[in-house]
């Protein structure tokens, strides 16, 4: 809630006396009794933590000024007859109390979309004739739909009627609904509660969603007269799920001529409510649109991705001599050999193997060679030694099954790929691009990058699934917002398997953030973000989240070698091997203690 200020603290007492005073002296209202004080006190009780802004004209300002001179109450007053542009205070939420002969005068203030917030309450006080004018012409007042609540209090000869108007509420959108009627004799009764709308239930309101086909965000499959009836894509799937959570329907409209300028202009003018299709955030767009704060992909926006085929990896041996990898092997082998040797000596068994030989056997076991345990350790120590060595061998087998390919890939892969596009091209890599999206990419590149993109060696494919086949067996540099696409191929290209993360190397030559844009002032953006977070927590979009949110695997390019190039696979394997080794040792020690207890308790 907004912190209280001096004028919000005294707001109730101000209005309790101010409104009857205005009613008594101005023919705008038909009430001349101070008995209205309890009514206004009850109406405004819900807004005691709002900043009060009174919108007046010359006649009503005189009355307000006279009252303030007597009671010294702080508030904000805007006189719209001065025809001077005014801007609301920067508070979180305001109550706009409008005292005009003609309610349409408020258009001068509301034409600036920054003057109305989604948590604001706009309350018109008008007589019967002004009420009819408002009812017929309210749509001429811009940006009313951006407020949390529009209320109208109508004064007539018989009493007071309280109305509310909702937006983004289905069939009731833009209609004045009578909430309560109070006769003069009933003015001391409490009025109906009029709280700002929370926008968590849009009552099956139709949201106008504009899009441009852009795989893998949205791709229309069935289209009719510019309206998409069936589509695929990550953002489209997300839209379907959120619509169920917020209880709204949507109309998926293709942007005219597939133009991003037309899409942006339509959002700015209010022709559309939101857009999907991997829309990038720029400074100019940020000034005229709202963007979702949940669906921002700064780290995954624009990058160059390429794959090194395995037959090329065998020539890179710089990673074979990894000290951490070999140190972990050595520590494990010598520790286990020492335990085995001294356990056998403790039992006074005649050990058939020397310490060196035990070390060799365990070392061979760590490379998946078989072990013959039968004749190594006779006597009482055999069971413990067999359990210990078998556990070690099994742990090594499991470790290799799970991590062998990753460890091998790390050991034989070059740790630092070339840092520039020129170096990659000189190595024989060709740029591969979805030619349907090439013009969109070109707009984001500088002149040097455009020259590289337009080389004769550039490979152009009709669809990403075709591009996906090409990169399997060729040296390729993929251009564009492709990082997520590689993880979506299993969803959209059903004939191909998803590329494993270990086979992809990424470099961030240019980063452009993406988000879902809304027309400025749409009041349900915060609820939209909240529902997405709830969806992620409920696990309803785990597949979407897993394939789209891969920030932990890909790091931003900061002018130096990407962190992705120094893949922390060997660190993961070292830690897991160490943990497995500790588990094996612990299990062996437990079995050893049990065996000692057994021998101690057994009768001679």
TrEMBL record:
Residues 1-24 form the signal peptide. Keywords: Cell membrane, Glycoprotein, Membrane, Receptor, Signal, Transmembrane, Transmembrane helix. Residues 214-540 form the Solute-binding protein family 3/N-terminal domain. The keyword Protein biosynthesis does not apply. InterPro entries: Insect_Ionotropic_Sensory_Rcpt (IPR052192), Solute-binding_3/MltF_N (IPR001638). It is a multi-pass membrane protein. It comes from Zophobas morio. It is found in: Cell membrane. Gene3D superfamilies: Periplasmic binding protein-like II. The keyword Glycoprotein applies. This is Solute-binding protein family 3/N-terminal domain-containing protein. The chain crosses the membrane at residues 326-344, 381-403, 573-594. GO terms for cellular component: plasma membrane.
């Amino acid at each position: 809630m907004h912190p209280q200020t001096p004028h919000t603290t005294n707001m109730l007492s101000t209005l309790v006396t101010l409104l009857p005073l205005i009613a008594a002296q101005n023919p705008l209202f038909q009430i001349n009794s101070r008995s209205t004080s309890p009514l206004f006190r009850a109406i405004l009780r819900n807004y005691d933590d709002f900043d009060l802004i009174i919108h007046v004209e010359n006649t009503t300002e005189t009355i307000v000024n006279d009252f303030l001179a007597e009671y010294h109450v702080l508030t904000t007053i805007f006189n719209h007859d001065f025809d001077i542009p005014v801007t609301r205070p920067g508070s979180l939420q305001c109550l706009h109390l409008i005292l005009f002969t003609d309610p349409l005068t408020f258009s001068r203030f509301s034409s600036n979309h920054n003057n109305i917030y989604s948590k604001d309450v706009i309350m018109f006080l008008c007589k019967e004739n002004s009420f009819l004018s408002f009812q017929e012409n309210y749509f001429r007042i811009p940006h009313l739909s951006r407020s949390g609540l529009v209320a109208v209090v109508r004064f007539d000869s018989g009493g007071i009627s309280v109305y509310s108007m909702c937006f983004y509420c289905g069939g009731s959108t833009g209609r004045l609904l009578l909430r309560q009627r109070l006769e003069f004799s009933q003015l001391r009764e409490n009025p109906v509660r009029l709280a700002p709308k929370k926008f968590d239930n849009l009552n099956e309101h139709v949201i106008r969603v504009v899009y441009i086909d852009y795989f893998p965000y949205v791709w229309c499959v069935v289209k009719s007269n510019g309206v998409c009836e069936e589509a695929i894509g990550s953002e489209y799937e997300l839209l379907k799920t959120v619509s169920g959570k917020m209880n709204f329907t949507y109309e998926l409209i293709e942007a005219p001529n597939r133009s991003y300028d037309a899409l942006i202009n339509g959002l700015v003018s209010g022709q559309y409510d939101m857009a999907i299709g991997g829309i990038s955030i720029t400074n100019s767009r940020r000034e005229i649109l709202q963007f979702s704060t949940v669906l921002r992909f700064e780290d995954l926006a624009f990058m160059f991705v390429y794959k090194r085929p395995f037959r090329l990896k065998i020539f890179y041996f710089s990673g074979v001599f990894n000290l951490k990898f070999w140190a972990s092997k050595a520590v494990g082998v010598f520790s286990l050999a020492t335990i085995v040797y001294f356990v056998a000596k403790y039992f006074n068994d005649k050990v058939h193997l020397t310490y060196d030989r035990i070390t060799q056997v365990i070392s061979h076991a760590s490379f998946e060679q078989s072990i013959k345990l039968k004749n190594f350790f006779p006597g009482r120590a055999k069971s413990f030694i067999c359990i210990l060595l078998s556990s070690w061998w099994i742990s090594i087998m499991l470790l290799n099954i799970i991590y062998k390919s990753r460890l091998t890939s790390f050991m034989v892969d070059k740790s630092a790929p070339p840092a520039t596009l020129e170096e990659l091209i000189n190595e024989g890599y060709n740029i591969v691009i979805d030619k349907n999206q090439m013009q969109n990419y070109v707009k984001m590149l500088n002149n040097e990058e455009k020259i590289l993109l337009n080389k004769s060696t550039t490979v152009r494919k009709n669809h990403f699934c075709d591009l996906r086949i090409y990169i399997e067996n060729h040296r390729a540099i993929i251009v564009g917002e492709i990082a997520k696409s590689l993880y979506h191929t299993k969803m959209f290209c059903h004939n191909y398997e998803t590329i494993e993360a270990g086979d992809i190397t990424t470099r961030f030559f240019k980063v452009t953030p993406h988000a879902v844009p809304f027309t400025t002032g749409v009041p349900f953006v915060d609820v939209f973000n909240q529902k997405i977070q709830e969806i992620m927590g409920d696990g309803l979009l785990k597949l979407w989240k897993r394939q789209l949110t891969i920030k932990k695997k890909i790091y931003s390019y900061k002018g130096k070698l990407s962190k992705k190039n120094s893949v922390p696979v060997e660190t993961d394997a070292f830690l897991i091997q160490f943990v497995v080794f500790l588990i094996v040792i612990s299990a062996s020690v437990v079995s050893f203690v049990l065996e000692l207890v057994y021998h101690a308790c057994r009768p001679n």
